[in-house]
Hints:
Elements: H1 2-28, E1 34-44, E2 47-56, E3 61-63, E4 76-79, E5 85-93, E6 97-101, E7 106-111, E8 114-123, E9 129-137, E10 139-140, E11 149-157, H2 160-163, H3 191-210, H4 218-229, H5 233-272, H6 274-292, H7 301-311, H8 315-329, H9 331-345, H10 352-373, H11 387-403, H12 408-413, H13 420-438, H14 455-471, H15 495-502, E12 508-509, E13 515-516, E14 537-538, H16 541-551, E15 555-560, H17 565-573, H18 578-586, E16 589-594, E17 607-608, E18 615-616, H19 619-631, E19 638-642, H20 659-677
Parallel strand pairs: 14-16, 15-16
Antiparallel strand pairs: 1-2, 2-8, 3-7, 3-10, 4-9, 5-8, 6-7, 9-11, 12-13, 15-19, 17-18
Helix pairs in contact: 3-9, 3-10, 4-5, 4-8, 4-10, 5-8, 5-10, 6-9, 6-11, 7-8, 9-10, 11-13, 13-14, 18-20
Amino acid sequence: xxxxxxxxxxxxxxxxxxxxxxxxxxxxxxxxxxxxxxxxxxxxxxxxxxxxxxxxxxxxxxxxxxxxxxxxxxxxxxxxxxxxxxxxxxxxxxxxxxxxxxxxxxxxxxxxxxxxxxxxxxxxxxxxxxxxxxxxxxxxxxxxxxxxxxxxxxxxxxxxxxxxxxxxxxxxxxxxxxxxxxxxxxxxxxxxxxxxxxxxxxxxxxxxxxxxxxxxxxxxxxxxxxxxxxxxxxxxxxxxxxxxxxxxxxxxxxxxxxxxxxxxxxxxxxxxxxxxxxxxxxxxxxxxxxxxxxxxxxxxxxxxxxxxxxxxxxxxxxxxxxxxxxxxxxxxxxxxxxxxxxxxxxxxxxxxxxxxxxxxxxxxxxxxxxxxxxxxxxxxxxxxxxxxxxxxxxxxxxxxxxxxxxxxxxxxxxxxxxxxxxxxxxxxxxxxxxxxxxxxxxxxxxxxxxxxxxxxxxxxxxxxxxxxxxxxxxxxxxxxxxxxxxxxxxxxxxxxxxxxxxxxxxxxxxxxxxxxxxxxxxxxxxxxxxxxxxxxxxxxxxxxxxxxxxxxxxxxxxxxxxxxxxxxxxxxxxxxxxxxxxxxxxxxxxxxxxxxxxxxxxxxxxxxxxxxxxxxxxxxxxxxxxxxxxxxxxxxxxxxxxxxxxxxxxxxxxxxxxxxxxxxxxxxxxxxxxxxxx
Length: 678
């Protein structure tokens, strides 16, 4: 009997442990990257500054108090009204970062690391009282957004008489209120990956820069300088190494100077200001005009001559000045590359200019140094000729096309009204002209006659015109994912949506061959919400589940938000894929649950959360509570495939920009549903 009781006790204990483990696992997925603290500073006997501070985990950000309409949810503060105090002026915040957001197509302000908000109040009573209120904020990182969160606060305020007796400098009048929930282990920052990518791009640009008329002919001249300067081959090769290292040093110093002189904050301001973006576009246009042959960008002759005289002295100092002479003489061809790298670097981290210049110079150093060590390899190089100018002209077309992206910010800020179709039309014209140039149908002043088309030139012609054909569907709403970062977001003119709008009441055929109506009944909240790409679905879970059962289809649950940047990115870049769109349209009943909608629910639809015990009175709060209590997750976007009973058919998916992986997720859910049916 005793052993039986012990056995039951052990089973009970194991059950408790299992429940605790499951609960901990669920809670661990509830991300809380922002912690709030509350303090104050006394300004006068009747005036107090309330200080609200946000400590933001690395990689996350919260939006500013000042955002344009139809954007993300701003951080806001709501103080309960009272006749015992009054608010003085508007709430003040620390300086936010301002950046153009492609998903929302607008300039947005946000805080990362730390944000401080201050509100001055005037005390109007001698009595002790409490200032109560609630703050609302939204946190995002590079791959997900959290639903709006609400933090209640209370400031314990002494009356006027009591306050006159305390220290005039500073008092603490608020209890620290923190949300202490362990966050998920931080994912590796994308910074190091982006720096590596930028380095490789700069390295590639450096190799292309060698193929310009100002640089390529200098290869044999430079190599012969080292081979003839010394009868000692070892010494000549050592000088060649010094020459290569000097090239790297000179260019990298330029990058370091840009990083040091401007700094991180200035780089952000410069890159995000519409005036500097217009300047960048003009700069790229000047570079392109120079490469077209309109004029040459040259340094003063005395600077080149001085460096050349120092190079004639020979030795290791001569090798350094030979490198400096190469940099100065080739400036007319390398200026667009250097300028382009530094401008691109201005949109990123403070170390980017240094990394870019190092990558660019490394390409020069490798080519010149290797050929100085193995001069016989020069015999295998193509001879200089008219093809070098063709390289410059082709690069001019590309530089002009890339420079167009710097008009995105001023176009938005100044409301120029340049649509995506206009951008694409300009690109089509530019690359079509480039194709005709490669065919020899267009000639510039310094071009040699094109008597025949070589195989490499033919390959470039094919690539160029193929790219032009790729761009054409973009005029009619195609996403053009390969170049979407250089274009404004899709306009409202989306043929897919037009087609779906005109066929709303027409039956559709699923991949199983079964014909079924698009929807079972009119979706609840259809006047508030809609799905992208003309898709049809529901915005209430119970209604969607009932329709899925009637149509015998699985449920595609899309937990999202109006202000969820990455939800928009997924819909723009992944849902627009024809195969993904076909699956969503025909093989699922879509249920979209918005977590940030503030529409009030009728009282009979209110729910009391089992997670925090609070009553959820709006659509957004109810959907947020459902996501947390049902899936133990609070980040968006979040996608789940369910059967009619609400059972998960496959592992849920969050932000996933890879179309193939997303398609695999959908197909896996469909297969699991078919197996369950059978």
